[in-house]
Write a sequence for this structure.
């Protein structure tokens, strides 16, 4: 899925980093899919979405509001930049742990979605 708000085919990989944060791109894509009514079998918010949003001190509803008004990834990241810039070392370590803890699921998703 592109950074624009067009109809997606698949969300980006959970391994895709935006500003160093895993899963954020995927959560953005799924949230946009939900807003456009094209979520299909995907789920937003799933527990992994909620984990990343919690680290950014955002509720799923707040995240949806941001995406509803943003024009693309750059705009979303500009809006989130204050939250991202205030992340501490424990948060960044938590993102690394997230990738390790969910590595099998991420591999399965990438395989199922044709990225592996």
């Amino acid at each position: 899925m592109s950074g624009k708000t067009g109809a997606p085919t698949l969300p980006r990989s959970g391994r895709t980093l935006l500003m160093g944060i895993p899963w954020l791109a995927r959560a953005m894509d799924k949230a946009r899919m939900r807003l456009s009514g094209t979520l299909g079998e995907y789920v937003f918010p799933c527990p992994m979405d909620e984990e990343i949003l919690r680290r950014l001190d955002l509720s799923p509803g707040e995240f949806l509001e941001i995406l509803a008004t943003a024009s693309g990834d750059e705009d979303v990241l500009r809006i989130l930049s204050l939250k991202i810039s205030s992340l501490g070392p424990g948060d960044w370590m938590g993102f690394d742990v997230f990738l390790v803890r969910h590595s099998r699921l991420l591999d399965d998703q990438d395989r199922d979605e044709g990225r592996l």
Q: What stands out?
A: The chain has six helices and no strands. Residues 2-8 have pLDDT under 50 and may be disordered. Helices lie at 24-36, 47-55, 60-69, 73-85, 89-101, 103-112. Residues 24-102 form one domain.
